[in-house]
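BUG: 3D viewer hangs when loading the predicted structure for this chain

Environment: internal workstation, default settings.
Expected: structure renders.
Actual: progress bar stalls at 90%.

Input used:
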Amino acid sequence: MASYHLITLTIALCLLAACDDASKPQQEKVASKEATHTPSSEKIENFKKQDVNDKSAMQATILDDIKKKLPILIDQATLLTEISMKDNAFIYHLDVKGIPVSVMNTHYWQENIKKAIQVQ
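Structure tokens produced before the viewer hung:
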């Protein structure tokens, strides 16, 4: 009985050792991928020069991400066609069909469209 446990334990250790060796080449591949994504010294210097309160990089990233998804159908009558920035404010360009201007000028409609855009 003891020899059975010893044989089972030996086989299990051999299998574990084999599994461990199989993962080493994968780790090398991951390490080499990370090395290719290392930022250049120029990018690091530009990062260091940025003002702590500078929001432009984050705003540009947000704009780029949203622009990739455009146009976005907000609801049955509203299509978000463009987004831009001016004076630290996002400007949404909408095509609206079938809703009178008098309705679009109401606070109620404007608040609802803001909520709808945030959900998208």
